[in-house]
Amino acid sequence: VVLVESGGGLVQPGESLRLSCVASGFAFDEYNMYWVRQAPGKGLEWVSTIGWDGRTKDYAESVQGRFAISKDNAKGTVYLQMNSLRPEDTAVYYCTKDMGGYYGMDYWGKGTLVTVSS
Questions:
Q1: Which of 11, 25, 31, 44 would staple 1 via disulfide (CB 3.0–4.6 Å)?
Q2: How large is the C-alpha radius of gyration of the chain?
Q3: DSSP-derived 3-state class of residue 29
Q4: What is the distance between the alpha carbons of residues 6 and 88, in angstroms, rounded to a whole number?
Q5: 3-class secondary-structure state, position 30
Q6: Is the predicted pLDDT of residue 103 greater than 90, yes or no?
Q7: Are 1 and 39 contacting, i.e. CB atoms less than 8 angstroms apart?
Q8: Angle (nearest 5°) at CA 62 between 51 and 86
Q9: d(CA 3, CA 30)
């Protein structure tokens, strides 16, 4: 299993970014996926979940209404559209794979850094 994130960078408050995570080595269309982030000096924070078929979606309260998760099973890719970014969104963002049945995360990418600063 390999998960490779991309799309991070430096943006100003209020701007947008779209993160991508290309997955390989497993049946991508059969698994739920997550985005998790870690801000500098802080612990891991779950951001969003998407069901295996792309229909079920859930968000942390801190990003609800600003972020949107999506999944393209044909491309083996999960996305995180991030709008109205705030300085507190600064973090390394990780794409993770569900082990099955929403029981937890068993594989992680190396992450992509998002910095929101003026």
A1: 25
A2: 13
A3: helix
A4: 20
A5: helix
A6: no
A7: no
A8: 115
A9: 15
Can you tell me the distance from the alpha carbon of 106 to that of 20, in angstroms, rounded to the nearest whole number? 19
The residue assigned the tokens 């982030």 is: 37
Q: How far apart are CA 56 and CA 107, in angstroms?
A: 20
Q: What is the mean pLDDT of the chain?
A: 97
Residue 100: the pLDDT is: 87
User: Is the distance from CB of 17 to CB of 7 less than 8 angstroms?
Assistant: yes
77 C-beta neighbours (distance < 10 Å), count: 18
Q: Which residue in this structure is represented by tokens 């924070």? A: 45
- What is the token pair recorded at 52? 């295996």
CA torsion through residues 86, 90, 96, 101, sign: negative
Structure tokens at 19: 């993160």
Indicate the pLDDT class of residue 84, thresholds 50, 70 and 90. Answer: very high
